[in-house]
Amino acid sequence: MIDYKGRSEHIKKLYERQNTLDESIAHQMMSSEKIAFATSQWRMMWRKFIRNRIAVIGGIVILLFYLTALLANFVAPYTLQQRMTAYSFLSPQRVHFFTEGRFQPFVYGLKGSRDPKTLMRVYVPDPEKKIPIRFFLQGEPYKLMGLFPASIHLFGVEEGIVSLLGTDAQGRDMFSRIIIGSQISLTIGLVGVALSLIIGAFLGVASGYFGGWVDNLIQRVIEIIRSFPPIPLWMALTAALPPHWPPLRVYFAITIILSLIGWTWLARQLRGKVLALREEDFVMAARLAGASDGWIIFRHLIPATFSHIIVISTLAMPAMILAESALSFLGLGLRPPLTSWGVLLKEAQNIQVLLLYPWLMIPGSFVAISILAFNFLGDGLRDAADPYTV
Amino acid sequence: MPGAGCEKPAPGEHKKRYDMIAYIVKRILGLIPTLIIISMITFIIIQLPPGDFVTTAQAEIAASGGGMDASAVEAMRIRYGLDRPMPVQYWRWVSGFPRGDFGYSLEWSAPVWDIIAGRLSWTLLLSGLALVFMWLVSIPIGIYSARHKYSLGDNVFSFLGFLGLSVPDFMLSLMWLVFATMMLGISASGLYSPRMVDAPWSLAKFLDLLNHLWPPIVIMGVVGTAELIRIMRGNLLDILNQQYVTTARSKGLLEKVVVQKYAVRMAINPLISVLGMQIPKMISSSIIVGYVLSIPTVGPIFLRALITQDMYLAGAILLLMTVMLLIGNLLADIALAWVDPRIRY
């Protein structure tokens, strides 16, 4: 790289003078009605994004999911491990919303009996017995967001059971488990993408900006990592986690393993972007003004790729969520007591069990909905990130 | 065009063919250092779990009430060479590769290659057919969607594509299992129905096999189809707006000819370049789908080997899948260079 600093004093002064001149001219021009056209880029992106209805719906679904995950213990009527052994393998209950014409949701009480032929336990709704669903009800104590002790649940019943999505073999409420499990399923993607982003943005930008041997080295490393097929590599790495590790450490180990591949994709994308930006005038201007490499990277290049970073990290989320649920499903990822959607699905692997109790597959639809929403949102963001094309 | 026949090749033609061969040789030579590094990384990964196969075996024996004395444990270690230093173990492992010796499975007490050869071919077959399925489905749909932009059909296809992209492959496999058993009353797992497993080869058995093969192929293909449709549609839309297409139209060519002979041929090139991204997904998917539907891909055995720390078996599978991926990428690149003469080597 040419050392501009030595001979740049003079140029720098010229540049500053030009700058103040430019500014005053800009002010004179802006004072007219033209100011209306000077919409910032972020505003233009927002406008374009908001017009894309499917992307907005995707975004709202994701916000709802994360909000629910944040308040999961409050939204769920039961806790994760609460067993209602009298009601094992209960099918999803039907909720009736109106009692004698006014809004008062209720479920019917259940009479347990055994099927005379198969000896399977069956539950028959008892139309005589209406159990009202109460809101903001005292229930099992929990810690909201893991911090604040509380015992109020969004809804619940005073007797019997309310189980929107059925129960599992041990009589645990699937709805509660799915809602609480979403905390892990959704955050593992978030933490994984954040980690990939830190590594990927740093190495990708460095690779594109410096070029030469730095670029070469980073690209070779990426090539080697990407020559492994992802799922088998993840499987081999997660299988190496010692079984006696505490849950929290396993959780973070898995996010690290997931981002071990994830960063390469981000780095590739950002490198391409930086390669293009490097030749732009504003980078040359900064260099002429005597800015250091670090300054140019962190103050000019990374902010210039922000919209791009947001898009690719949104599009990277589905892969993370999918990978976590696939690994947990195979029994290599998270293990109970950690509960994610993948862990819940692992319990639904047995075809004999599934045939009898198909509602155990419901966690899978939550995986699908969240991925669908992320894809819609990411697509909309990608279109919006380039607001100058229509 | 290669094979253009009897005319005397143009001066550039010879050079191009030479360039192509040089390119292929260069790429193959370039694979060698990659393979060496990958074999090292694979070896390190399979060594990562604490303990080794003997400790796992010991734990299993202990769990079933038995016990192993220290000398037996030591003898077992020596027999499998687990007492040697790491570099020696690594060298003993890789030096067998050129002879087709991928080590010895400790759990199955058989050479690794004998165990996985058949399973690798199933993996290869399923992945290959899934790729073919993806192309056969997504190219026509992509063409239709581009020519009927924003029509009902276009929207329906793109919604279905998104749905396919979002439902995990293991979920689809589970749903198919349940659906087939409940609604159709057929056994959906394995390669054959139970009554056919031991039957001698016949047309009926072959049809039964086909009946068990198409669901995993479709399930594996569905994920990539959405992406391919979108790429095909986008490319074709771009190309249909280009001037040479307008020229073709203004010459009075039929729209069918314009699309099929001029536009589609160009729009397909990028699909070949994304092949490199599809192959790893196919391999990953074949493992999971194979596991859920009990198809003898390397998936189920890989999972088992990882859990029991049958390291040479797990390592060989990971390595061979990586090799499959590298060769697939190489073929995709060569195909792209062959199809699109503008590619520079």
Mind sketching the topology for me?
The complex is a heterodimer of chains A (390) and B (345).
Chain A (H helix, E strand, L loop, with lengths): L7 H23 L10 H11 L1 H18 L1 H4 L20 E4 L2 E13 L6 E12 L1 E11 L3 E9 L17 H37 L1 H15 L3 H10 L7 H32 L2 H8 L4 H12 L1 H25 L10 H6 L4 H6 L5 H23 L6
Helix pairs in contact in A: 2-14, 3-5, 3-14, 5-6, 5-8, 5-11, 6-8, 7-8, 8-11, 9-10, 11-14
Chain B lengths: L10 H37 L5 H11 L6 H11 L5 H9 L9 E2 L4 E2 H36 L4 H15 L2 H16 L18 H38 L2 H8 L4 H38 L5 H11 L2 H29 L6
Antiparallel strand pairs in B: 1-2
Helix pairs in contact in B: 1-12, 5-6, 5-8, 5-10, 5-12, 6-8, 7-8, 7-10, 8-10, 9-10, 10-11, 10-12, 11-12
Labels describing this entry:
heterodimer, A: 390 residues, 14 helices, 59% helix, 13% strand, elongated, B: 345 residues, mainly alpha
Largest interface (C-beta under 8 Å)? A-B, 40 and 46 residues
From the structure provided, what is the oligomeric state, counting identical versus distinct chains? heterodimer
Beta-strand content of chain B: under 5%
Mean pLDDT of chain B: 81
- Biggest sheet record of chain A: 3 strands, antiparallel
Helices of chain B, by number, come to 12
Shape of chain A: elongated
Query: Could you state the order of secondary-structure elements of chain B as H and E?
Result: HHHHEEHHHHHHHH
Poorly predicted spans of chain B: 1-7
- State the share of residues found in helices of chain B, binned by percent: over 70%
Radius of gyration of chain B: 25 Å
Q: Which percent band covers the strand fraction of chain A?
A: 5-15%
> How many β-strand runs of chain A?
5
How far is it from the N-terminal to the C-terminal residue of chain A, by CA?
A: 39 Å
Mean pLDDT over all positions of chain A: 81
Helix content of chain A: 55-70%
Number of helices of chain A: 14
Radius of gyration of chain A over all CA atoms, rounded: 28 Å
Strand order of the largest sheet of chain A: 1-2-3
CA distance, first residue to last residue of chain B: 17 Å
